[in-house]
Fold:
Amino acid sequence: MTTTLKESGSLDRACALDLLEAVQKYFDLMYDCDTSRFDQVFAATVQLHGYRDGQMVAWPAHVYRDILDKRQSPKSVNAVRTDEILLVDFSSTTQAFTKVRVRVNTMLFVDYLTWHRIDGKWLITSKGFHVESSTGEI
Structure:
């Protein structure tokens, strides 16, 4: 995992470590598709945007959760796991941004994730995704 932290003077180390733990929960969810943990990763108001089959899509939380429920998890087929943090940027102790790369079976995604600290937990409030490769190759 490669991580670049741009820390402001007011950002404490615990806050940054909490975010990195939250990112790991996101990676775990993408690998095992266990949506019983969906609300531990995504805010109820999350919006997801990206291109699928050449068309821009926008999904609210319940639609994305349903997609994950129906997806054959990479874990269930013992697929290669690839996940890495490309960038972490904090605007405050309650808002951050991460750029990550994650493999879902043969598809490689680059995701832009906006995080907010809500009731002491980092949750994704916005996800922009890009299919970097459909063959798993960079």
In short: Strands lie at 5-6, 42-52, 55-60, 83-90, 95-104, 107-118, 121-133. The chain has one domain: 5-133.
